[in-house]
Amino acid sequence: MGAEERATLEAWAEEAGGGLGLRSRIVLACADGLSRKEIAARLAVSSATVAKWRARFVERGLDGLADAPRPGRPRSTERQEAERVIAAAHGSAAPSLLPSTRSMARQLGLSQSTVARIWQEQQVAPPASQVLPRELLSDRVYALLRGWIVSGELVAGQRLVEAEIARRVGTSQAPAREAIKRLAHEGLVISYPNRGSYVAEISDEQAREVRDIRVLLEEYAARGAAVRIRPETLQQLAGDVLAMRRAAGDGDIGAFRDADLAFHRRVCAACGNSFLLRLWRTIESNLWSLHVVGNPLYEGDWMAMAGHHDDLVAALSSGDPDEAARLFAAHARGEASRTRPRSRRGTDPPGRSPVP
User: Fold this and answer.
1) For the region Disordered, what residue ranges are annotated (predicted)?
2) Candidates 3.30.70.20, 3.30.559.30, 2.60.200.30, 1.20.120.530; correct CATH number of 204-332?
């Protein structure tokens, strides 16, 4: 390798995107005396790929690193597809909105395999502004993955590939691996030795067990809160409902989840049993995730689900512990309230009119 060739390869390795940059790095590593195995491990390619491009360079020099003509669609068409995929990926406003290969394929009218290939070849990752702070990597990747599962972005039975997850959120594979382990511990992911990890399919029995636990806790909390709740807490609960409506309107299921958890946490705090609040804080994320994933209701209208919480606020405002317990238990079972209880205290929660 001459000095001029090396300078060109170094420029390509630094500036060229996609395949040409990778091929240049392969050839430079070969020139530096690294073995095929070492190069493959360092650049995350196969040994066969290393051998192929080394041989092409030896035979044809720099020209050998260009894509060879092949039958099928013109390269310009493939280039246009790649440009569309890259633009779609980098057009996301936040990491939680970065689409999967599945959703992007639907959006662009391409096959999922085409999108996945372009992601790999072009090393698609979030823009620099979306890269996560190092100290938050593990927790943030975990939260993103759980959000994608709960929102249906990752569907039951879909395989979770650490390399693809890392590319989506702009991290190494270690945080993705740790996040998958945590989700497996929660029951949202199933990992098989030598087969990979997959989004869990929640059985009817598991969904029933989750609902039963929620019914017990929510019914108890509502009964106590109905006779103790303060007007300022009712105002805060109404604010949580408003936040749910905004999140539903924006299609931000993560924000919806946060507002929903805050709502039920306030009810637990208002019931007068400090141990229940500590218990709820410990298990709330797992209960919410499993409840949503295993509950067909949550495949429907998120705005309507936000509206159900208006009925819960009204029930607490009524001061009737039996009515509040009934509505909260129905909510925990996934049943929409069909009644709007009258307020016994003479005031209704903000944004609601008294029922005749």
Assistant:
1) 330-356
2) 1.20.120.530
